[in-house]
Amino acid sequence: MKNVRLETVSKMFGSAVGVENVDIDVKPGEFFTFLGPSGCGKTTTLRMIAGFYFPTKGKIYFDNRDVTTLQPNKRNIGMVFQNYALFPHMTVFENIAFGLEVRKMSKAVIKEKVERAQKLVHLEKYGARKINELSGGQQQRVALARALVIEPDILLLDEPLSNLDAKLREETRVEIKRLQVELGVTTIYVTHDQTEAMTMSDRIMVMKEGVVQQIGTPQEIYNKPTNHFVASFIGESNVLNGEVVEIIENSVKVKLEDHIFVQGSIDQSANGKKLTIGEKIKCSIRPEAVFEGPGVNELHGTIQLVEFTGVSINYVVKVGSNIMKVMIINKGNRILNRGDSITLHVPVNGIYLIGE
Ligand code: ATP
């Protein structure tokens, strides 16, 4: 279990920015995820931690050891990639044993460690099978066993589930999380899939175009997004433009447009920043934070689209000049139609204020 620390790490590719000024402090045993769209710099950051790239600027520490320019094989890391990178004509046993043989361990020790690793990923009966005789999910478990068998200080996983079908992806997701908790190994996980990030991580770093947008627990990232990008990348969010018109003790009144106001609580204001009257602001409102019927922050609109999912009734509602997505949990309630008027309300804590 090691702590991983990046201090203002940047990586340039010629004049192009790969990542810029990344500061992170991954705690020992933590499951930490880099999340963001394609090209945001997740893999580049992971590769610098692995030692495949050296930073253009900044420092990387494992505990207090400076590893910034240390070769990958000196870092005691386990890695799993999207494409597994297994040896297809070798057996499961031989693949898992590979890293131990490189380390020149004795045959008896190798056998014991490999068998233990096979058991860990539920492949104890598959030692003699060739890789090309396994399913995608089984191959991914071999890759995981191969990474874990060397008892790494740090486990790095780069989109390990993206080649699996939906059902297997879900099963393997649970399996990886179980192993990680059981072994307590510091884990850094790269994905563009928000569900994976939300369900597996202790903390998530959201990135965009090489720049860190927010670091927080899944709950913090979801409930308190710091900006428009995070609010819309994680889950769905209505992001409405407004202007602060009144600050009353613990709440803020925001004018969305003529005659349409909402009130949010002060502790919901972005980054704990002090707000001022007249300030332009955005309100992030999750579809599930909107309720049907009269109440606080009452809004009136016209239904433009109706979608019934079974679990919920989803409406697209025009409120003034804004379009809002609304998710009503299906409790057998009546379903309105396109063109109907609807009254909505949003509890004060369902409105999260984000900066411009
Ligand atoms: P994906 O999910 O598509 O793998 P990513 O978030 O992992 O994306 P990176 O691969 O880290 O993104 O790329 C970050 C940026 O750096 C991108 O703009 C990419 O084009 C650029 N980049 C990455 N590797 C190189 C390279 N070897 N040479 C030049 N540019 C690169």
UniProtKB/TrEMBL annotation:
UniProt keywords, alphabetically: ATP-binding, Cell membrane, Membrane, Nucleotide-binding, Translocase, Transport
Q: Which InterPro entries match?
A: AAA+_ATPase, ABC_transporter-like_ATP-bd, ABC_transporter-like_CS, ABC_transpr_MalK/UgpC-like, Mo/tungstate-bd_C_term_dom, NA-bd_OB-fold, P-loop_NTPase, Transp-assoc_OB_typ2
Domain named ABC transporter is located at 4-234
The entry's cellular-component GO terms read: ATP-binding cassette (ABC) transporter complex, substrate-binding subunit-containing
Q: Which GO terms describe its molecular function?
A: ABC-type transporter activity; ATP binding; ATP hydrolysis activity
Q: Which Pfam families match?
A: ABC_tran (PF00005), TOBE_2 (PF08402)
Query: Under what name is this protein listed?
Result: Spermidine/putrescine ABC transporter ATP-binding protein
Q: Which organism is it from?
A: Robertmurraya siralis
The major lineage groups are: Bacteria, Bacillati, Bacillota, Bacilli, Bacillales
